[in-house]
Specification:
The chain has 699 residues and is an alpha+beta fold. The chain is built from 21 helices and 8 strands. A 4-stranded antiparallel beta sheet has the order 2-3-1-4. Helix 10 packs antiparallel against helix 11 and helix 10 crosses helix 19. The chain is elongated and about 90 Å long. The two termini are 48 Å apart.
């Protein structure tokens, strides 16, 4: 009796210890979030969103901005006050303009008194205003612009707008500062709706959503630490993408885990045993896929653009924090809640999962009957869609970077119409003080220059303000900037127009460097995971084709349908990195399952169709969630985010419902064992082997 009791106690104690593990994990995460909360709340304080903050440190326009910071007064804030009446300005209008601009000069320390520049048609007065009063403080610069806008007022048919680089930057800061709340709330709402539809449970959908929120808080704290410790550039764009990835990728991992856990609950009586089996089954595939995504994203560290280089580690942090939360906190919470979390569809121990007619079985059957025809048709379709990329609108201008035009953009349009022979956006030249006189004379005689004036001096440098004939960011202004850079040896040429040129140059360079790195890194990881060369090449080719098709659809819709008048220079690179990394993510789940079936003795056709039937539902659910989270960006007020969200969402849907379902399955059927060349599965029929744990279950 005593021995039996002792033996019973020994069996019970380990079981009790395992029951305490979920509580310990939840307590640990509570402590982590308590520590991470304060730094996470400071992430917005370290964001930088000026155009120059996106540029490489070596760019000519970046050098101009850095030197300007060292001149007396530091960085200047340049505005243009625009007074306009369609029928022509009246004497009262001119008096009001004089009085109001004098009020601005009296309230602030300006580098020069405001001087009116009338248009030839008499409809417009332009007052350039510049100050170094706010220095480098973004909030102070925005406050200065707001105060000027409060001082200058129109009415009675007189319109008054505040434009110029300073106003554009202030409006951009406001937009980026307002993204956090709406982006988070919209993302949470979209994911919640999809999870409710997928799980059909009043409670279950809330669990992965809360865990994703915890992962988002942790990722913000980690990124803040990267900024403080390693000077990683954080922009509004990278912060937005990180939040999308945490909720999108995190929910995908949750779908895979919960699906497998539900299945294991019918095989194990105790939830912690079922969860352990689920983690053994799908954990390796989830870890492998997230590692592949992170590796692809980290290739952005090779980019020259500061914003893209910062995007890599920031996005990778989002994916890895989501992975960590979904493989630790989510299992712990689900185990603690027990089977009742699935109510009303509670899985019962000892029962067989209900067999349902599978849409993906039917789709796989159609792909399996004529694999070559399906493969060729799908390839032609993706190729035809890719041609639409040639219809993408030209490079995005500052005035088109907002989906709804703020005051600064309206001012730019007014100035362009009223002053056709004079730019309202000066080109800034920084030249050695010893050669300032010669540089000024050379600038004034440069073709395309209307005027040039000498500005501040300090630290061996002198600032020149050059006004071009052509409108800002036009081909004519670009030609003028090129002439100034060629003719003013030893000088740096900057300003908004030059910054946009440098941005486009760096984006083009990064595309040629980062794209091969991403392809190579992802391909090598797939070769190791799948132990094949043909299958990884097929998966990589498929996601590249999806990227081209998604860009092509963007080219067909951006300007004609959505009214977007330019393409962000960074769109091709960033959309490529995300679509390749995330597309391969799903490819790993599907092809690893095909390999399992083949190792278990299934014939190639049977292995491919079984893999699609068993994994298609959960991959489709995950793809829908990920596409929906990126689609949230299309509701943001910035053109760059709208374009990125659209292309990635469309690409994920193409990858989920065309490439994974039809093309990869058809290729597996058509190639048979050659799919696994030169691995062992390609050489001889597989003898039945012990089955590895399944990677994913049914949804």
């Amino acid at each position: 009796m005593r021995a039996a009791a002792q033996d019973s106690g020994e069996r019970t104690r380990p079981r009790n210890r395992w029951r305490m593990v979920p509580w310990a994990i939840v307590a640990l995460w509570a402590a982590v979030i308590a520590i991470a909360g304060p730094p996470a709340g400071k992430l917005g304080d370290v964001q930088v969103n000026r155009a120059v903050d996106y540029l490489p440190a070596s760019a000519d326009s970046t050098q101009v901005a850095k030197i300007q910071d060292t001149l007396p007064g530091g960085e200047s804030t340049d505005l243009v006050l625009v007074y306009h009446r369609d029928g022509g300005l009246t004497a009262a209008d001119r008096a009001a303009a004089t009085r109001q601009t004098a009020g601005v000069a009296g309230a602030h320390t300006l580098t020069a008194p405001p001087r009116a520049v009338p248009s030839e048609d008499g409809t417009t007065l332009m007052y350039p205003v510049s100050t170094t009063e706010p220095g480098q403080d973004d909030e102070a610069r925005t406050a200065f612009v707001d105060e000027v806008r409060e001082t200058v007022k129109g009415g009675g048919g007189l319109s008054v707008e505040v434009g110029g680089p300073g106003a554009l930057n202030a409006d951009a800061q406001k937009v980026y500062g307002s993204l956090g709340g709406p982006l988070l709330y919209t993302t949470v709402a979209v994911v919640a709706i999809l999870l409710i539809l997928i799980y059909r449970s009043p409670l279950l959908w809330l669990v992965p959503l809360v865990v994703a929120g915890v992962a988002d808080a942790l990722s913000m704290a980690v990124v803040y630490g990267l900024n403080r410790g390693f000077d990683v550039t954080v922009t509004g764009q990278s912060s937005a993408v990180m939040t999308i990835l945490v909720f999108g990728a995190g929910t995908d991992y949750a779908l895979l885990l919960v699906s497998r856990y539900r299945e294991e609950l019918t095989r194990f009586a105790r939830p912690h045993e079922a969860m352990a089996a689920a983690l053994r089954g799908c954990g390796p595939a989830v870890v492998a896929s997230s590692a592949t995504v992170a590796a692809g994203l980290l290739c952005l560290l090779a980019a020259d653009l500061t914003s893209s280089r910062g995007m890599g580690p920031i996005a990778a942090v989002g994916v890895l924090c989501a992975l960590l939360a979904m493989l630790t906190l989510l299992p712990a919470v689900l185990v603690l809640l027990g089977r009742r979390v699935f109510w009303p569809l509670v899985p019962v121990y000892g029962t067989e999962p209900k067999k349902r007619r599978s849409l993906f079985a039917a789709m796989g059957g159609s792909a399996g009957r004529r694999p070559v025809a399906v493969l060729v048709t799908g390839g032609v379709l993706l190729g035809a869609l890719s041609l639409g990329a040639f219809n993408l609108p030209g490079d995005l201008k500052q005035e088109d970077s907002f989906t709804s035009k703020p005051d600064s953009v309206i001012a730019m349009a007014t100035l362009a119409d009223a002053y056709p022979g004079r730019s309202a956006q000066p080109i800034t030249v920084i030249t050695p003080t010893g050669r300032a006189g010669a540089a000024l004379a050379k600038a004034r005689t440069t073709e395309g220059v209307t005027s040039a004036e000498r500005g501040r001096s300090g630290g061996g440098w002198t600032e020149l303000s050059v006004v071009a004939e052509a409108r800002p960011e036009s081909a004519g202004e670009r030609d003028t900037i090129h002439r100034l850079r060629d003719g003013l040896e030893g000088s740096h040429v900057g300003g908004p127009g030059a910054q946009q040129m440098d941005l486009e140059t760096a984006s083009s360079r990064d595309l040629g460097i980062v794209v091969p790195l991403v392809l190579l890194s992802v391909l090598l990881i797939l070769i190791v995971l799948l132990r094949s060369l043909v299958a990884p090449l097929l998966l990589v080719a498929a996601v590249v084709a999806v990227w081209g098709a998604a860009l092509g659809i963007g080219g067909l819709l951006f300007e004609p349908v959505l009214g977007l008048k330019g393409t962000d220079p960074g769109l091709p690179l960033l959309s490529f990195v995300f679509l390749v990394a995330l597309g391969v993510d799903y490819g790993i789940f599907l092809m690893h399952r095909v390999r399992e079936e083949a190792r278990g003795g299934a014939e190639p056709t049977e292995a491919a169709l079984t893999a699609l039937r068993t994994t298609g539902g959960v991959i489709a659910s995950a793809g829908l969630v990920l596409a929906a989270t990126f689609a949230v960006l299309t509701n943001m007020p910035l053109t760059s985010l709208v374009e990125m969200g659209f292309v990635i969402a469309v690409g994920v849907l193409l990858d989920t419902f065309l490439v994974r379902t039809y093309l990869v399955t058809s290729a597996s059927v058509a190639l048979q064992r050659r799919m696994w060349w030169p691995g062992a599965l390609s050489r001889t029929p597989a003898a039945p082997a012990p089955r590895e744990p399944e990677l994913v279950g049914t949804p």
